[in-house]
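Hi U.,

Before I forget, here's the chain from the pilot set. I'm dumping it here mostly so it's searchable later in email.
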Amino acid sequence: QVQVQESGGGSVQAGGSLKLSCAASEYIYSYNCMGWFRQAPGKKREGVATIYIGDGSTYYADSVKGRFTISQDNAKKTVHLQMNSLKPDDTAMYYCAADCPYSGYIGPDFGYWGQGTQVTVSS
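Structure:
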C-alpha cells in the first residue's frame, strides 16, 4: 500500500513557483516529522526542509531559506512545500519522507520514503 505519496512536480521557468504535496497514511502521519529531500543527477540526495508534526517547528537547508516554505495540513494528513523564486539549481527529483530521529533532523535517516516527483526549472 502507498504510505507516502508526492504530487505537484512539473516544469517552470526561473523565478516561478511550484507547490509540492505529500499525502501520508494516517499511521505514518502520526510519526513525529516529515520532510522534503531532493536529488539532482550526479549529486547526493540532500535535505530541503522538515517539519515536526507535533508543534509545527520547521527547518530549512540554507540554499532554500526565504524561498521555500513547508507546512502541514493535519486534517488531510498532508505536508506541502511551497517553492518560490525557483532557480535552475533547484532542478531535481523531490522526495517526501516521514519518521525522523528527532525534531530539526534533516539527514537521510527517515523511515518512510515516497517515489519522488520531478521538478525542472529552466533559465
